[in-house]
């Protein structure tokens, strides 16, 4: 799983003003991200607005990304949900030989207890044709996947190879890092502004939003951390700290799409029920992009 160390990007799904997927902009972005030196790309995650994509759009999006990446970096596909059987059936929609791993979010809305979360991922692990990255994001799912559940899943299933931790709970994340059964089980940051402290605690990388806009700078920061050069890494961390905060100040991925639009990458459209950031937040994001150009 060394290919999943470092910086992955939770890539946006760019839309035209008529709401269709903007594949021309997506191709430009794929080249921009790879040239920026990131280690891998994640399609159809939260930032990709996967919950608003139709089945046919997901298939077309995945195939397009695989074709344009052309093996230059690994591709991770987001396949998750709150109905276990449906998640497993969705594996068959895609040619998963083109991907490195599956990112699967902890069930949302249902709010299962720890036993239910374990059973959900047990079923997925037994059926998945690819390694599985757990995704804990209680701010969106409504329930937290405990450190104990994560650790048990990692120990019991060799194809559960990592967790993307977006709980914001450093004590929980540190427990997973400290008690994991093997260094082969990766702990990946799901919060851009917590990436440096997570890596300093022994984490292995990030699946990033901010790297959509600044792939080179953010992936350089992560690599410096992994080398133990935290003094240099802190400089880059704080250069992007306020910008990253702005990206989430009024909803994501609206913030990062505003930034990409200012950088010349397509429209800033999001699909309802999402809305664009407020005028004040959008202007602050655009101002940062202009100053950093």
Protein described:
The chain contains twelve helices and eight strands. It has helices at 23-35, 55-69, 84-90, 114-127, 138-141, 147-156, 170-179, 195-200, 215-227, 230-247, 254-262, 279-292, and strands at 6-10, 40-43, 75-78, 101-105, 132-136, 160-165, 186-189, 205-208. The chain has an eight-stranded parallel beta barrel with strand order 1-2-3-4-5-6-7-8, surrounded by five helices. Strand 6, helix 7 (170-179) and strand 7 (186-189) form a beta-alpha-beta unit. The protein is globular, with a radius of gyration of 18 Å. The model has no long low-confidence stretch (mean pLDDT 97).
List the main descriptive attributes of the protein structure presented here.
single chain; TIM Barrel; 12 helices; 13% strand
- Second rung of CATH, namely the architecture: Alpha-Beta Barrel
Structure summary, number of beta strands? 8
How confident is the prediction overall: mean pLDDT?
97
Indicate the CATH class. Answer: Alpha Beta
Rg, Cα atoms, Å: 18 Å
Number of domains: 1
Going by helix content, strand content and strand pairing, the class is alpha/beta
What's a concise summary of this model?
It is built from twelve helices and eight strands. By secondary structure, it is of the alpha/beta class. Strands 1-2-3-4-5-6-7-8 form an eight-stranded parallel β-barrel, surrounded by five helices.
